[in-house]
Design brief:
Radius of gyration: 23 Å
CATH superfamily of the largest domain: Periplasmic binding protein-like II
Strand content: 15-25%
Helix content: 40-55%
Structural class: alpha/beta
CATH architecture of the largest domain: 3-Layer(aba) Sandwich
Shape: globular
Order of helices and strands: HHHEEHEHHEHEEHEHEHEHEEH
Number of strands: 11
CATH class of the largest domain: Alpha Beta
Number of helices: 12
Distance between the termini: 48 Å
Amino acid sequence: MDPIALDTFLTVAQHGSVTAAASRLHTVQSNVTARLHQLESDLGAPLFVRHSRGVTLTPAGTRLLAYAERLRALAAEAKAAVRDDGVARGVLRIGAMETTAVMRLPALLGELHRTHRDVQIEVRTGPTAELLEHVLAQRLDGAFVAGPVHHPRLEARTMFREELVLISARDSLTMAQRLSAGDLTAITFREGCSYRQRLETVFTARGWLPFRRLEFGTVEGILACVASDVGVAILPRRVVELSRERDALRLEAFAPEPLQVDTLFVRRVDAYLGMTMRALDAALDAAAAPDNA
């Protein structure tokens, strides 16, 4: 299969439009359409359904998508291996939970950026389930996720241990009062977030039912809502103590045992470990040192 045609296919699939893909690829629509038709002819199956709003993948296109992503990632990895001359350079694609991006990545990636100027760092945030999918699909070189993680295609190293705490507005009702009033709202990240799963497990185990969910995509949004007494949340103690909302919040540790979760760095077991990844490994070693935990 023609690598350019596969890249065109991936771009159209990502943007859902031939027009948008042409703009992204800096070419004309007729070129994009011609490459798609050639690819469909080579494979003997239609890859997209055309409609007034753009295009959507057919079942055959959906099956091709994962293979095309792997082929593109493998080509990029091969190029990196050939060009590896002992100097860290190129693009490093890192994923992280929103909380880790806020409280851990600035120092870790800041030092990496200062010491390796030829490395371009791209950070993508999301819930653990989504990040694992991106690492497996080779859209990310590695990601910081919540443990435990057991997958035959992934290797994981423990980076940090975080204590999760229950937070509410400083002068708000207690949990007992909220439950008595039938007014309990849990503010969480979206589906797939490990912290959300732990919140639901804790609330169910303690009989804090029923409760409503309010989803946010950022730490700042969750903290601001809790500070405004919209609801309660479970977050790492460290992220709350570092926030500008900390004086407006009440933190409650879980008892008799603290609620703790390990943050892991995961990557594929078959990942190419060139100089750029070795530079990242050195930064991870420094970040995981006892004094930084």
